[in-house]
Amino acid sequence: MKKIIQIARLELSLLFYSPIAWLLIMVFFVQMAHAFIPGLATMLQLQQLIGDNGFLTDRLFTTSSGTTTGILYTMLGSLYLYTPLLTMGLISQEISSGSIKLVYSSPVKLRELIYGKFAAMLVYNLVIILVISGLFFILGTSLVAHFDYPHVLVAMLACFLLLSAYAAIGIFMSSLTSYQIVAALGTFGVLAFMNYIGGFGQGIDFVRDLTYSLSMPSRAERMVKGLLNSRDVIYYVAISGIFLSFTITRLELARTSRSFLYQVGRYLTIIVVGLAVAYLSSRQAVILYYDATDTKVNTIVKPVQEILKKMGNEPVEMTAYINGLDNSYSVGAPVARLYGIAKWEPYLRFKGDINLHWVYYYDITNPQFYAANPGKSIKTVFKDVAKTQDMDTSRFLSPEQIRKQIDLRGENDRMVMQLKYKGKTTFLRTFDDGDRWPGEAEIAAALKRLVVNPPKIVFATDAYQRSVDKIGDRDYKMLFNTKQSKTSLINMGFDIDSVSLEQGAIPKDIAVLVIGDPRAALSPAALSNLRKYIQEGGNTLIASEPGKQSIVNPLLDSLGVEMLSGTLVQRSRDYSYGLVTPNLTSGAVVMSPALKKPYEEKTVVSMSGAAALKDQHQGTFKVEPVLMTNEKTSWIKRGSFVLDSAALVFDKKTGDEHGSFPTALMLSRKIKNKEQRIMVTSDADFFSNKELTRANLETANGSLSISIFSWFSNAEFPVDMSRPSPKDTHLKLNKAGMKTLKVLYYAVIPAVIILLGMVLLIRRKRK
Predict the structure, then answer these.
(1) Mean pLDDT, the chain, as a whole number?
(2) Are 136 and 62 in contact (CB under 8 A)?
(3) How far apart are CA 450 and CA 499, in angstroms?
(4) Sequence ranges of the domains in the chain
(5) What span, in angstroms and rounded, lies between the C-alpha atoms of 426 and 439?
(6) What whole-number distance in Å separates Cα of residue 250 and Cα of residue 230?
(7) pTM
(8) How many separate helices (H) and strands (E) can be counted in the chain?
């Protein structure tokens, strides 16, 4: 060990007396400054325009997308540029000068020589990471309130590990030649290859795995994002060990005569041992994780962890079905496989026996397909598509073959994942948004459906009620039954069904029965069936409209609630007087804590046509208002009126009534050892397709609608995905300080680095 330290000290003295080392330090600092200062200025500008921003630490140091790119993430792609010039002469200079022969005959062992030179490079890398990057780290801690220290430190560790692996490769390349420039070019070529190889051969399974294992920066990216794991740390140590062993072997074989088979065998042994260590350390059961981020953004939330824990040791089978004739093919294509696997890694961390399978097929059921391809069979069209997209047709199942396994026509033959656990199955869909993959909320809902009975929302179909299957303005498909929408309840864990109150019995095990704006009086049989269901403790949502009081009040009598005659109107400069915008009450927050933010911010709910509700205080239910109108701007308008360009006026003579009125009431009572829950709303439009897409008013309609059905499911679904709010939201900087930093980091510090290097070089020359 003493000899290794002595060699390392000698190499460091030579290194820091070299102009190249100081030049690279200055270039490294200038590159970081030109990445950091503009990002800092952008964050300052945003703070002055819109106020505090969250995740400032991530945005300035580690993020890979957005308005700025973190400097440490940016530097990952260019770290390989610094190594060749530093390592090119470490061994080649010994070979060209002949001093390597002295080493052969000296008491110093070759491995001590190599380890000493590598140790010198490790110290130099520490200088770059701890000192140069540390200048920006110190700046971040000074400027960002509640700076996320562990996250940035882990990112710096990732950069150090990557640089160290590059150094080991550079030392090996230096041992292959006596020409330093050749060693530098060779190192540059190898490192460039290992930086970009990860994008090649992604469509071929074996090649994809091989190129991924050779792609070195991709592993560091995960750690830069804050997730430190033993697999990637050991990988970089193993790579360093392989190339250092290569170097020792190269020098030992250069002074002895060995057979070709012996030489090949020795190199193969090193590769096998190194890759075996990397492989064994990548087994899910032995990987250790540490999420360094303050809000644990790299870790699935506690409720999802509990779901996986409940699954025990029984495996989960995930089978992705990818249709080569659908636009969703690109999501699950072989070239996107690694991205798909990465989506499941956070769950594999807590349950290692989630088995991933990929099935490819071609099929189409859209009539427009046949109209666009007259006279062509599906097989012929698929072959044409396969040629244009370079698909391997041998892996695709025909329509007949796939339908023997599973019928996906109900999913429109899009890419879909089927999860299977203990004989239960559920679908996990892809979407038409930017990412297209299901997010954490959708995956959590699908997993939870496998361990609990999914809540079922049942719509009554009597009396011309609104449809959950139509996309009309007044219907409800968007909220409940749009399979390609993440915000649709069918993708949040709910089952959707319908029932005729008159012809069929209401199921006992449902979460809620929805009476959605009946337009005619229910028949005596249907009304009797509904009353019996409510009397026995069934959850119910009754939504009606002004003018339907005579239809809905017979349903509300037994609840102790009445929909008052007349229509609520609201004075407004910009909107129709028929658009009422009540506010959430404190009772809404009790119903769902997710409504706390819109309640505090006084975000309104848009109701296009609503009546006033009244609690008669006659029933056995506890009644709480969820929405209340503004008494200063709204009133009950009675009698007939027309909503046109003429503004409505309050007319007490016709029975108009001022006040603050509830437009949604929640009712609850204890019955049969459970809590019965009922919601009554005097508007059936607030969760309609039209109101959920209203663009001319900021509303809380979507949040309220989802919260209502979460309440009916006893908060089982949607799965709670809330995380702690970020603390690093404020930048302690002003414009004057920004100007000072530019002068300091663009001019002063680079000048100091140059001056320090010149002083050391002059001292060396004098000596």
Answers:
(1) 88
(2) no
(3) 25
(4) 2-294+734-766, 303-441, 453-712
(5) 16
(6) 30
(7) 0.88
(8) 31, 22
